[in-house]
Amino acid sequence: MGNATILVADDDAAIRTVLNQALTRAGYEVRITSNAATLWRWVSAGEGDLVITDVVMPDENAFDMLPRIRRARPDLPVLVMSAQNTFMTAIKASEGGAYDYLPKPFDLTEMIGTIGRALSEPRKVAAQPEDTTEGMPLVGRSAAMQEIYRVLARLMQTDLTLMITGESGTGKELVARALHDYGKRRNGPFVAINMAAIPRDLIESELFGHEKGAFTGAQNRSTGRFEQAEGGTLFLDEIGDMPMDAQTRLLRVLQQGEYTTVGGRTPIKSDVRIVAATNKDLKILINQGLFREDLFYRLNVVPLRLPALRDRAEDVPDLVRHFVRHAVGEGLDAKRFDGDALDLLKAYPWPGNVRELENVVRRVMALYPQDVISREIIDNELRIETPEQSSPQGGAPMAQATIAQSVEENMRRYFSGFGEDLPPPGLYHRVLEEVEYPLILAALTATRGNQIKAADLLGLNRNTLRKKIRELGVTVYRSPRPA
């Protein structure tokens, strides 16, 4: 739709100029204004094929105008831009009926691609949900978190199954709860179950319930988590620890939409949204015969990888302030972390991720009487957090291992896990696949998501890199750059 007309509203003259030039080069007709009143006059008159608008306008907030646009022209796609870059901004844009949300500064190439999709796809109009603007369940304005917010905003009004991966402590359950609390199932229950915390022989009973007399000790009928989550969301944490028998029954539920209790015979219909999470590489477990490949593809409809805190260190000050507010609300005295203390917190690698940061903030607030938390206090606490890395004999600290040494040590542990037996055939390709993901992710992180630079860094053709990103499911975190 090269001759489509794009309506642009932004009170920033530089943004208007850049958008006008880029959209004109892309073959679109462009009409630009600096205020919401003019934009609304064009829209209400039936002009334009797509709208691009900033949230904060001098005469009206775009979120207040979105419902009017939606009522007047439900088929008109709207792209919302914002420099506020929070989870709630993305959610409000989605709930207001925006086609997509783009944090400022934005990527022009990405915007042109989004415009093309918006103009070519049939418009789907969902029912207007109630206002849900209170609270801030997810914190951070980094490029990595912006991608998370955008994915979640797109999923809010769907029932698609989500697979969340990431290191321990990155907030996988928080993301699942946010998806539930701000989604179409918000009025239903949110039920969480941790597979690693339940005895393996009781997992099926926990998930599906059991009948009286189904096994020794089953003196009464018990409802399972699927029944408890009816009409809502079931969060399956540490899904990689689910035993194979339970995996088979879960796959049947996902395929047929019904289940039976342990010891029961009557099928029970299931209306539950599944969100699964793991800190393990399920593809490795599949190769080891410990996880069903067909179940993986059923759960991995929408993959979402949460970044480690060290990969979004710019979010640390916001997280600290968030944890301080919560601690004050629970009765601790208010504290302020000075700039040097925050710099030290940002530089720390946080092996325990956000959970570890929260623990440090709470401990400091509880143990130190000072109103201002200094760098010295944080330095002391982080030394406590990080034990000395000693050699196996207890001598001097070990030097950092080379990649070859790390792989050799990993392979030694891997083979020892099979005892006298050997791993399944195909080990060479499995190891190469496992190495590819962190290598490509590291290159993309180092180049701030620039695939051309990453391909050059890796010595790959760009098309080859893009193919591997798709095949491996690598999440590309684009760094903001000036429009």
UniProtKB/TrEMBL annotation:
Gene3D superfamilies reported for this sequence: 1.10.8.60, 3.40.50.2300, Homeodomain-like, P-loop containing nucleotide triphosphate hydrolases
Domain of life the protein comes from: Bacteria
UniProtKB keywords: Activator, ATP-binding, Cytoplasm, DNA-binding, Nitrogen fixation, Nucleotide-binding, Phosphoprotein, Repressor, Transcription, Transcription regulation, Two-component regulatory system
SUPFAM superfamilies attached to this UniProt entry: CheY-like (SSF52172), Homeodomain-like (SSF46689), P-loop containing nucleoside triphosphate hydrolases (SSF52540)
InterPro entries: AAA+_ATPase, AAA_lid_NorR, CheY-like_superfamily, Homeodomain-like_sf, HTH_Fis, P-loop_NTPase, Sig_transdc_resp-reg_receiver, Sigma_54_int
Summary of the function given for this chain in its UniProt record: Member of the two-component regulatory system NtrB/NtrC, which controls expression of the nitrogen-regulated (ntr) genes in response to nitrogen limitation. Phosphorylated NtrC binds directly to DNA and stimulates the formation of open promoter-sigma54-RNA polymerase complexes.
Designated name of the protein: DNA-binding transcriptional regulator NtrC
Source organism of the structure: Hoeflea phototrophica (strain DSM 17068 / NCIMB 14078 / DFL-43)
Lineage: Bacteria, Pseudomonadati, Pseudomonadota, Alphaproteobacteria, Hyphomicrobiales
